[in-house]
Design goal:
With about 525 residues, the chain is of the alpha/beta class. The chain has 19 helices and 17 strands. The chain has helices at about 5-15, 20-30, 40-50, 65-70, 95-105, 120-135, 145-160, 185-190, 240-250, 260-265, 280-305, 310-325, 330-350, 355-370, 380-390, 405-420, 450-460, 490-495, 515-520, and strands spanning about 55, 65, 110-115, 140-145, 165-170, 170-175, 180-185, 200-205, 225-230, 250-255, 270-275, 375, 395-400, 425, 440-445, 470-480, 505. The strands form three sheets. An eight-stranded mixed sheet has the order 6-5-7-4-8-9-3-10. Strands 13-14-12-15-16-11-17 form a seven-stranded parallel sheet, sandwiched between helices. A two-stranded antiparallel sheet has the order 1-2. The longest helix is centred in the middle third of the chain and has 23 residues, at about 280-305. It is globular, with a radius of gyration of 24 Å. The two termini are about 30 Å apart.
Length: about 525
């Protein structure tokens, strides 16, 4: 790629002062007399010339000249992309996908590619699988559930010419002895040696962050010399990353952040609204009782029963172990079970807060203007209630839950895709593993402290739109609880989006539907 007009002034700025972020660089360009630019213009040049510019992976990224650019005055042409695998017949990959594929190959075909939901990390896996097929190797693709089992199976059959693709799990028992590629549910793959002895192979782990557990790690088999992990964020709240995943895959070798996705225009720009509500007196009383019980039992589990205080994932892992009677101590098991019960009851009170349902009626005019909308809950009941509230407000809405059979879920997704339903309301079912048709408004009814879950949910609505309009993301929360940003909720998620969102707005419980709609529509007008 030929350097653009901003290439040389950006090189001059970073040669003088390395470690600047995009806003600092924009200010520097303005001081040089280059006006009428945006941070998107800066990002587009930086990411399009990765042989000259490199970043540190922070949020926001801080940029510097590459070693080669520093030695040669910045006059370094962009690297020639590797040739695509011969048997790959899919769409032309995006620039970041080609770069990630090349980086993974340069790291001895081992490592993790981390890309925010919606940027197309599956294509990197397909390219790796196609290259292995070209080389006469066998490929195992690990997935967490049956939805991804079928999706990967369909994509691989479509995009790799001549490969014999099979499935393992959910009633299928195909094997690598007579298949080029097998897509396997991780639970099923963990029971067998999937790669025949002496046969070279590649293991691709989709949603790799999920496999850092003693049971799933049995599927990460050492016979596979080439290894690729794919994830929206390569982290866990426990030690599973250090203990299981990094020893097998290594670290992140390539990524696609919000910055890169927006610069390459493979993600839609987006705006985020936080809307606080309050409990009813009865709900507040129930929440406080469960909250006091959770805090008291947590202290007891740490002090009396040896549960680790941090990280929270390790604490919960030990609590679950104790609740099953894992240490043979009946008091510890009883305390662990009481803790889990109170923890889940508190979460239900938050998820099913009546004023959140009332707030959904306020949000209804925004969803009515959407091409399609998604409402994310925590429980089946909250999803059902959300759909009912929206229908009562005149919005065509359906719930979709794990309590439905596969055919019914498929029919509802088809109705959503065809426009028969404008909004789908679901608990965690839509977070990952289901190919959801494009939506442009997302509403979170039950917040999550998990950065990964928030990134996955946002990825459902920030795929680029034909008219380049921004997406809208609305987060409902109960004030003064673990959902409230003022108490630390969404901290990791906010760190990622605060510098890339077009706008982050806060609304109070008394906001009207007209005010919220006006804010939403103001973002759709041309600048």
């Amino acid at each position: 790629m030929q350097p653009g007009p901003l290439w040389r002034p950006l090189w001059q700025l970073l040669a003088a002062t390395p470690g600047q972020n995009k806003r600092q660089l924009l200010a520097g360009l303005q001081r040089m007399g280059l006006h009428g630019l945006t941070t998107t213009d800066v990002n587009r040049t930086l990411y399009a010339n990765t042989a000259t510019f490199a970043h540190d992976g922070a949020t926001p990224p801080r940029w510097r000249l590459t070693a080669a650019a520093s030695r040669n005055g910045g006059a370094v042409p962009a690297a020639v992309p590797p040739a695509l695998p011969r048997c790959y017949v899919g769409k032309e990959p995006r620039a970041w996908q080609i770069e990630a594929f090349a980086a993974w190959r340069a790291h001895n075909r081992q490592g993790v590619v981390e890309a925010v939901t919606g940027t197309g990390k599956t294509t990197v896996g397909v390219l790796a699988a196609a290259a292995a097929v070209d080389a006469g190797q066998r490929v195992l693709v690990l997935v967490p559930g049956r939805e991804l089992l079928d999706q990967w199976y369909d994509v691989l059959r479509r995009d790799i010419r001549g490969a014999v693709v099979g499935r393992h799990g959910d009633g299928h028992a195909d094997a690598l002895e007579d298949h080029s590629i097998v897509v396997a549910i991780v639970n099923s793959a963990a029971r067998y040696q999937m790669l025949p002895l002496g046969m070279p192979g590649l293991l691709i782990a989709d949603e790799v962050h999920r496999y850092g557990t003693p049971s799933f790690v049995r599927a990460l088999q050492s016979r596979f010399g080439a290894r690729l992990g794919l994830t929206a964020t390569y982290e866990r709240s426990d030690d599973g990353l250090i203990d299981y995943l990094e020893p097998f895959f290594g670290g992140v070798v390539a990524d696609c952040s919000y910055d890169r996705g927006l610069a390459d225009e493979i993600l839609a720009p987006f705006r985020v609204a936080f809307m606080g509500v309050d409990f009813t007196p009865e709900e507040q009383k129930a929440h406080d009782e469960y909250d006091d019980r959770v805090r008291s039992l947590r202290r007891r589990l740490i002090v009396d029963h040896g549960c680790p205080a941090e990280p929270f994932g390790e604490f919960m892992a030990m609590v679950n172990h104790l609740s099953a009677g894992g240490e043979g101590d009946s008091r510890a098991a009883w305390d662990a079970r009481k803790y889990l019960n109170a923890f889940n009851k508190r979460r239900e009170v938050l998820a099913e807060c009546r004023n959140k349902q009332a707030a959904l009626a306020v949000v209804a005019p925004v969803l009515a203007t959407a091409d399609r909308g998604l409402v994310f809950g925590q429980t089946m009941r909250s999803a059902e209630d959300a759909a009912a509230v929206l229908r009562a407000s005149g919005v065509q809405a359906m719930e979709i839950t794990s309590g439905m059979n596969a055919l019914e879920r498929k029919q509802r997704l088809a109705a959503f895709k065809d426009g028969q339903a404008k909004v789908l309301a679901a608990p965690r079912l839509l977070d990952e593993g289901i190919d959801v048709p494009q939506a442009d408004v997302g509403v979170i009814v039950a917040g999550s402290r998990s950065k990964l879950q928030m990134i996955q949910r946002m990825g459902r609505v920030i795929r680029p739109k034909a008219d380049r309009r921004p997406a809208t993301f609305i987060i409902l929360y109960v004030r003064g609880t673990t959902e409230d940003p003022d108490t630390g909720a969404h901290e990791g998620f906010l760190e990622q989006i605060i510098d890339v969102a077009q706008e982050i707005e806060r609304f109070d419980p008394w906001t009207s539907g007209a005010d919220l709609l006006a804010w939403h529509l103001s973002g759709r007008r041309p600048n």
